[in-house]
């Protein structure tokens, strides 16, 4: 049963910390084009102090093309050219297909097995199965900024500050029913009776601590502990218990919008913000709630932190920022700065890590694929073909590892890239270095 009256769809497959905070920083990044002036979202929240307009006046420039992976990478794949020979010399690296539906800019992706969820500014969530349009469901308000999936539930974070919860019908996998919002209506009503549950979110405005007061920018799941984390432009991250949809904790984490939150190894949580910082938090599980304590600040600079990713195969955390750089830190006990990956010419908008690979998407419309070998990183590929900024990435195992000479198996991955050109591209990427191909 629905817990509010916002009129969200029921799964049709049609096209259709309590603390005080300071005033919000204004959004300053130029929109993709003049035609998008009526959109209710910029694709990035940040301060403008370290970016300048490009020659075309569209996106922030961060560096010259000297030393770019375009020049450095021996395997530059372009989706705008003829489709690559996936069985040829590139060991299967390259474009598989493009997914397109006239429903607006793609802002969020989540991939589980052969199912892909895409969110856009049309407020629709499309479901793709085996790279074909499969189903869809929609919310009546709120651009879909983030999607995560756990078991039979899908969580979507929206521009209107709500987290919506959906469930796949056990009888019909094309039907997705909305089963509630976070926070639940009954929790909102109960909390609203106590003045102590209100915090100041900006000058002359207060709100309940269990509700986000601005856009949901990111979601992250800790499935082992049954927790969902949400980050918002209201400068907070909140912790939700999935079992009963309760908000356990709200943390005023940054001085500006939280752009990324990632649950990592050993009960550690990382947050990145438009205030230019990456912070580390240690989680303590209490009887009825959680407590997150600040451990350290990994990065502090003028450029906005736009994205974070944590490797599942090694204790490495990556940070993308609006200057086009990717910083990374290594070590589980004591995180040490490992270096900087300088490949993009504009802001890095999204990151995803898989195996020994890191994939970065940028406002320069390109995707860089990096390979980690010990503490060193090299650029394996530059994937190009999008005609707009690459806003989101998702990755799943390919399941068809290739054997090389000697019988060793080389893992490969399916990478999905969502763009403000309204398309999703599907790529096959191998961990095999080009010189072995």
How is this structure best summarized?
By secondary structure, this protein is an all-beta fold.
Could you characterize what this model shows?
- With 437 residues, this protein is an all-beta fold.
- Helices cover 3% and strands 49% of the residues.
- The chain has two helices and 35 strands.
- The strands form ten sheets. The chain has a five-stranded mixed β-sheet with strand order 3-30-29-28-27. The chain has a four-stranded antiparallel β-sheet with strand order 4-35-34-31, with no helix packed on it.
- A hairpin with a 4-residue loop joins strand 28 and strand 29 (367-373).
- The longest helix is centred in the middle third of the chain and has 8 residues, at 185-192.
- The chain is globular, with a radius of gyration of 21 Å.
- The termini are far apart.
- Mean pLDDT is 81; it is low at 1-5, 11-49 and 51-91.
Highlighted features:
437 residues; mainly beta; five-stranded mixed β-sheet; four-stranded antiparallel β-sheet; 2 helices; 35 strands; 49% strand; disordered N terminus
């Amino acid at each position: 049963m629905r817990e509010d009256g916002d009129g969200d769809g029921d799964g049709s497959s049609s096209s259709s910390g309590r603390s005080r905070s300071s005033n919000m920083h204004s959004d300053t990044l130029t929109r993709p084009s003049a035609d998008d002036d009526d959109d209710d979202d910029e694709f990035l929240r940040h301060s403008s102090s370290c970016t300048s307009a490009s020659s075309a006046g569209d996106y922030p420039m961060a560096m010259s093309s000297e030393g770019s992976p375009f020049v450095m990478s021996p395997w530059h794949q372009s989706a705008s050219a003829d489709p690559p020979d996936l069985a040829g010399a590139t060991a299967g690296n390259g474009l598989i297909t493009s997914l397109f539906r006239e429903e607006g800019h793609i802002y969020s992706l989540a991939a589980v097995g052969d199912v892909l969820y895409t969110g856009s500014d049309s407020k629709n969530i499309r479901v793709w199965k085996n790279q074909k349009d499969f189903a869809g469901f929609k919310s009546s308000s709120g651009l879909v900024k983030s999607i995560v999936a756990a078991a039979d539930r899908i969580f979507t974070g929206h521009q209107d500050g709500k987290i919506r919860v959906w469930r796949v019908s056990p009888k019909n996998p094309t039907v997705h029913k909305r089963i509630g919002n976070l926070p639940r209506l009954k929790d909102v009503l109960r909390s609203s009776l106590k003045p102590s549950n209100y915090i100041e979110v900006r000058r002359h405005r207060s709100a309940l601590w269990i509700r986000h007061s601005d856009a949901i920018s990111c979601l992250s799941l800790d499935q082992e502990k049954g927790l969902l984390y949400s980050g918002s432009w209201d400068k907070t991250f909140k912790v939700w218990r999935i079992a009963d949809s309760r908000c356990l904790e709200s943390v005023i984490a940054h001085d500006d919008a939280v752009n990324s939150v990632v649950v990592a190894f050993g009960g550690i949580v990382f947050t990145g913000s438009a205030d230019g910082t990456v912070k580390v938090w240690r989680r303590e599980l209490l009887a009825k709630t959680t407590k997150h304590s600040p451990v350290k600040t990994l990065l502090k600079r003028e450029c906005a932190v736009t994205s974070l990713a944590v490797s599942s195969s090694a204790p490495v955390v990556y940070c993308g920022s609006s200057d086009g750089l990717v910083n990374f830190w290594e070590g589980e006990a004591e995180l040490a700065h490992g270096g900087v990956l300088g490949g993009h010419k504009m802001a890095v908008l999204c990151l995803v890590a898989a195996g020994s690979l890191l994939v970065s998407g940028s406002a320069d419309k390109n995707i860089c694929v990096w390979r980690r070998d010990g503490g060193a990183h090299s650029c394996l590929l530059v994937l190009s073909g999008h005609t707009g900024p690459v806003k989101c990435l998702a990755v799943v195992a390919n399941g068809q590892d290739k054997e090389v000479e000697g019988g060793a198996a080389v893992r490969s991955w399916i990478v999905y890239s969502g763009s403000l050109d309204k398309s999703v591209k599907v790529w096959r990427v191998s961990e095999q270095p080009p010189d072995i191909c």
